[in-house]
Amino acid sequence: MSAPTMLEPHTGLYLDSPPHVIVEGDGIRVRDDQGRWFLDGVAGLWSVTLGYSEPRLVDAAARQMRKLPFYGSFNHRTNEVALALADDIVAMAPIPMGRVFFGNSGSDANDSAIKMARYYHWARGNPQRRKVISHQRGYHGTTLASGTATGLAHIHYGFGLDESDFPSVQCPDPLHPGSRGLSEEQQVEWLVADFEDLILQEGPDTVAAFISEPILGAGGLIIPPSGYFERVQEVLDRYGILFIADEVITGYGRTGSLFASTEFGLRPDIITTAKGLSSSYLPISAVLVGERVSEALVEGSQRIGTFGHGFTYSGHPVAAAVARETLAIVRERDIPGHVREVAQHLARALEKFRGMELIEDVRHYGLLAGVQFDSAEAGLPAGELGRRMLDSCTEHGLLLRAMGDTVVFAPPLVITAGQVDELAARFTDAYHALLAAVRGAAA
Predict the structure, then answer these.
(1) Whole-number pLDDT of residue 161
(2) Which residues of 334-353 are buried (b: 16+ CB within 10 A; e: fewer)?
(3) Hey, is 173 helix, strand or coil?
(4) For residue 175, what are the CA distances in angstroms to 185, 224, 225, 363?
């Protein structure tokens, strides 16, 4: 088992300056408390998929607030909106669903999925199956369980997390030093061999599940090599291990399909979703539980008389109403189709940076993209160029996010081709400003 990876430097920097305060949003733009408007190239936090001024979502919240502002899902009671939303999600799910469990965030969705995986094996008479395998540089949240499954060191430091039940495997990064000189097929062989070796080392009968993002987001926008997940699925099936697909970032259209599981041919037992479910207008998450898992949960709960998991705000009717309207818009406007079209425009714009000075790699899939800088080329510590480029983008009216030296793009899914051109122009100006500063410092 390897230690989590540090991607983002964390110092007292933020304590020394006031935060950047955003006060207004309109379309794909936001305004700060100084009156400056920015093009939001990362959709808040990969999440405001329909932009900041969709009146149908505001109206849906207001209507439901007037009708029934709250009713929970305990004691065999629920509300009609949560039930209807579950039906909506099941109808669009990429695998046969047994149940949908609602929460409030991607973190609690993954935490819930981990508990369900353990419960599944307990109900089948294998309580020793507790371990959950995840990727180095994978991100799954910050609760005790989801944070421990996250393969980023700064999520672990200081919290006393017990990592013994959360072994991690190599990040499926084509730029990984271990992949150098290997063909894509050879990379897959190396990664899958490492994966199976870990299972055998831990003991197959102790492993409950494998959790992975189809595209690793906060770990640096890592797109696994072709065929990787297909081979991993074979290993999981061989040892009876569940597959949890973390689609908190990718779900509901970002890759050009409703679910990235479809894009990558995944066969997960559980899918976790959040951000795009309500375009982040209100907090809500959904765990899509496959039939064989849900049947085991029912069986186990009948044995002890209850299923001891849930949250006060699970299936909150106002959040559910906004989510239903979000999904309706996604279907009516064919948001995945729009993403497929405009993503090509974004890809062409960013490919122009491939091979340019200080740039190590360019990668993209749907409306997710990353430009990886090479701090070593500039004689700077790892991550420094990413941070400086982020600052330069902000100065040029563009909000992005840096994961180490990788600057990532995840704009609202409603972005137009013309707005992609504007985004690319601002990024280009920011890049040339950074380049001039680096050259000037070296002179």
Answers:
(1) 94
(2) ebbebbbebbebbbebbeeb
(3) coil
(4) 14, 10, 10, 11
Candidates 301, 309, 6, 292; CA nearest to 136 is 6
Average pLDDT, the chain: 95
What one-character DSSP code corresponds to residue 142?
Answer: S
Helix (H) / strand (E) containing 168: strand 168-169
Structure tokens at 233: 């699925």
**Dihedral in degrees, nearest 10, Cα atoms 116, 119, 124, 128:** 120
Residue 333 burial (C-beta neighbours within 10 Å; 0-12, 13-18, 19+):
middle
Which amino acid, one-letter code, is at 85? L
Predicted confidence at residue 388, as pLDDT, reads: 97
- One-letter amino acid identity for 370? G
380-429 pLDDT, tens per residue? 999 999 999 999 999 999 999 999 999 999 999 999 999 999 999 999 99
Read off the tokens for 377: 């080329």
Question: C-alpha distances in angstroms, 19 versus 15, 37, 42, 126, 243?
Answer: 9, 16, 18, 49, 39
Q: Please check whether residue 214 is in contact with residue 139, taking contact to mean a CB–CB distance below 8 angstroms.
A: no
What is the CB neighbour count within 10 angstroms for residue 435?
A: 17
Question: How far is Cα 216 from Cα 137, in angstroms, rounded to an integer?
Answer: 8
The β-bridge relationship of strands 37-40 and 406-409 is unpaired
DSSP letter string, 354-373: TT-TTEEEEEEETTEEEEEE
Question: Which token pair is 77?
Answer: 């009671």
Nearest alpha carbon to residue 140 among 30, 245, 55, 51: 245
